[in-house]
């Protein structure tokens, strides 16, 4: 790392820390820590939602996916408008009315304490695992680029992000998310432009190579349920994005703190829609990298067989001094925005759903600080474990959505049905979880057989099982009453 790169990187970290100090207030309350002062500009909230959706994984996995195969991953992005519109129309009005900074208060009001406890615990567990995974991948990227020891990077990242999250509260998180989102976009667009300019035969040659090798394909359009066809990825995207925008505390907290219902809806929609062109840029970078290295002598074998590291290789070896620092800052930005958001939202859920209601403001604040530190330490430990147990990483990203499959089903029952019998909701949830477990375990028990469905469809089938079972049980009970 050259001196210029190091200066760019350090300046970026100092600016991030400056914003946290800027929003520190001695008159802080638990409400301002979790929901802000109400003076945050709506464009900042919108960019924060966008930055929450993106992580350092997008910076590495999307280019790697396009380099290795095609644009099948973009189909996931194409489903965002549907999920965003459903969220705007049906979910946001619910959260704006519950008078709580925790999304899961709604389920308590709708089905009882059991529903809130189940979903909030699922959320907390998945967020802690998610943060640990992002910290690990961030350290892996920095280690690949700079050669820094992963242990030190993991500890520094966790401590640094928790520090500015605690000092600045949600407003510091919102502003740093917005800045990180801008840095991320600028870095990606610059890299895309540099690749296009760097083609030996110009930009036209890039497209010729990509088209000849079918790199812009969206995947097969057949009816297979065990292959990641266009339709499988599209349906999966609708459910996962509805889970993100519709029931994830990371996003809901931003809807609640918005100054009005209209602003909350606009931020949700535009924050999601912004990901469409940005994800296209990431995928185009992967396609451009494929053409660039195909026409420039190829890659070392150890890099060519690890698609997620191709972009890192390009940053480390092809970019001019100073620009590498900006791109490293971009990758770090994407990771930090996701981590800081998870820290704040998870501590908010713990406070609202599990801490004593009659506690003083001082006690509530210290609980928020302490829970953030605890989440940070656990996440660091998870990231450290992943250094030696690489298979955990693959398993986590493959099954993360499955672990939280029951959450979306319960919310859909609450919002789109008139079910009143809590027992029906419990039966529907248990049946949905059993279906998810069977579909997940089947390929592990019978590796030589074809899976019952592609892993992407497990959350779809599980969620529909919960929703339809609840509807049918409610219909049967109502019909029985009439007879």
Mind explaining what this structure looks like?
With 483 residues, the protein is mainly α. The protein folds into 2 domains: 3-389, Sodium/glucose cotransporter; 417-483, no CATH class. The protein contains 22 helices and no strands. The protein has helices spanning 3-22, 30-35, 42-53, 56-68, 74-78, 80-97, 105-111, 113-146, 150-197, 203-212, 230-247, 249-257, 261-273, 275-294, 301-304, 310-318, 323-354, 361-388, 390-403, 405-416, 422-445, 456-482. The model has no long low-confidence stretch (mean pLDDT 85).
Major β-sheet, in short? none
Number of helices: 22
What name does the CATH topology of the largest domain carry? Sodium/glucose cotransporter
Number of domains: 2
H/E series, N to C?
A: HHHHHHHHHHHHHHHHHHHHHH
| Beta-strand percentage range | under 5%
Distance between the termini: 77 Å
What shape does the CA trace take? globular
């Amino acid at each position: 790392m050259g001196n210029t790169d190091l200066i760019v990187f350090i300046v970026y970290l100092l600016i991030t820390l400056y914003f946290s100090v800027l929003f520190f207030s001695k008159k802080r309350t638990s409400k301002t820590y979790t929901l802000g002062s109400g003076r945050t500009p709506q464009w900042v909230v919108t960019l924060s939602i966008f930055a929450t959706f993106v992580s350092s994984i997008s910076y590495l996995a999307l280019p790697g996916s396009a380099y290795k195969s095609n644009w099948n991953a973009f189909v996931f992005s194409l489903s965002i408008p549907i999920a965003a519109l459903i969220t705007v129309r049906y979910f946001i009005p619910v959260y704006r009315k519950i008078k709580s900074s925790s999304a899961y208060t709604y389920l308590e009001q709708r089905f009882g304490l059991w529903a809130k406890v189940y979903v909030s615990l699922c959320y907390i567990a998945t967020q802690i695992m998610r943060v640990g995974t992002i910290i690990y991948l961030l350290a892996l990227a920095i280690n690949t680029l700079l050669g820094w020891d992963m242990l030190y990077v993991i500890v520094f990242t966790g401590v640094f992000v928790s520090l500015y999250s605690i000092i600045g509260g949600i407003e510091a998180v919102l502003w740093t998310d917005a800045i990180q989102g801008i840095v991320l976009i600028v870095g990606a667009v610059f890299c895309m432009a540099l690749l296009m300019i760097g083609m030996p035969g110009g930009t036209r040659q890039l497209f010729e190579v990509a088209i000849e090798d079918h790199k812009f394909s969206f995947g097969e359009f057949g009816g297979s349920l065990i292959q990641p066809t266009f339709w499988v990825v599209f349906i999966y995207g609708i459910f996962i994005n509805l889970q993100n925008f519709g029931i994830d505390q990371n996003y809901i907290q931003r809807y609640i703190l918005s100054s009005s219902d209209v602003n909350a809806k606009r931020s949700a929609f535009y924050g999601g829609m912004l990901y469409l062109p940005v994800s296209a840029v990431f995928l185009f970078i992967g396609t451009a990298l494929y053409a660039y290295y195909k026409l420039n002598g190829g890659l070392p074998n150890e890099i060519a067989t690890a698609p997620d590291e191709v972009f890192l290789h390009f940053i480390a070896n092809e970019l001019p001094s100073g620009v590498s620092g900006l791109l490293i800052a971009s990758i770090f930005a994407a990771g930090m925005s996701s981590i800081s958001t998870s820290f704040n939202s998870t501590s908010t859920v713990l406070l609202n759903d599990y801490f004593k209601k009659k506690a003083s403001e001082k006690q509530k604040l210290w609980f928020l600080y302490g829970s953030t530190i605890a989440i940070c330490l656990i996440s660091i430990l998870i990231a450290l474990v992943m250094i030696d147990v690489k298979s955990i990483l693959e398993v986590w990203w493959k099954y993360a959505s499955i672990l939280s499959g029951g959450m979306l089903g319960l919310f859909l029952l609450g919002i789109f049905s008139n079910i009143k019998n809590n027992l029906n909701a419990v039966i529907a949830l248990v049946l949905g979880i059993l279906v998810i477990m069977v579909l997940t375990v089947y390929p592990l028990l019978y590796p030589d057989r074809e899976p019952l469905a592609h892993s992407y469809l497990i959350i779809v089938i599980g969620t529909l099982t919960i929703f339809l079972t609840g509807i049918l049980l409610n219909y049967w009970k109502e019909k029985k009453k009439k007879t």
